Amino acid sequence: MSENDTPSVPYWHLYTDESGVSRQVRCHMTEFEKKSMQPPAAPQWQGNRHHDGMTVMVTVQPPHWEGTWHENPAPQWIIPLSGRWFVESMDGTRVEMGPGEISFGEDQGTREEGGRKGHKSGTVGEEPAVLMVVQFDTHRDRTTPCRFS
Predict the structure, then answer these.
(1) Residue 103 forms beta bridges with which residues?
(2) C-beta of residue 88 within 8 angstroms of C-beta of residue 120
(3) Residue 83 has pLDDT above 80, yes or no
(4) Is the dihedral of CA 139, 143, 145, 147 positive or negative?
(5) Percentage of the chain surpassing pLDDT 70?
(6) What is the pairing mode between strands 103-106 and 9-16?
(7) Dist. CA 50–CA 53, nearest whole Å
């Protein structure tokens, strides 16, 4: 990528489809504008800003930790800082992520199917998974895959 090429930043989107089943799809953020964060700092590529109230926290999943099937408590970005973790959606898709990979969890409103509702997640490997979580304060009635693209 050259200095003037608009970036494309991949992320996974865990969402609820029309039938109430959670699914994951690979998306790309592509709407960036090159400008200074605060002049006189040099310009950098900045994505769209979202002005929803948010809660930010860091979680640490111990080695071998696995959560049971559940929905995300709120729409939320999950950014691994160290270690690896996984998310398995109701459609059977399992995605493993580590530092530098991003997931947006938005599987609220799923229906139970075969003892599964929402998603299952856990730690991969022998290290704890340290995750930064940025939760939105508002929920959407209907989720759209790749809505940040």
Answers:
(1) 12, 78
(2) yes
(3) yes
(4) negative
(5) 99
(6) parallel
(7) 9
pLDDT tens-digit profile of 43-70? Answer: 999 998 877 789 999 999 999 999 999 9
In angstroms, rounded to a whole number, what is the distance separating the alpha carbons of residues 29 and 121? 24
| Mean pLDDT to the nearest integer, 99-122 | 96
- Rounded to whole angstroms, the Cα distance separating 68 from 125 reads 18
Sheet holding 84-89, edge to edge: 94-97, 84-89, 119-124
Number of H helices, E strands in the chain: 0, 11
Domains of the chain: 9-136 (2.60.120.10)
CB 106 within 8 A of CB 35: no
Residue 41 tokens read as: 């700092």
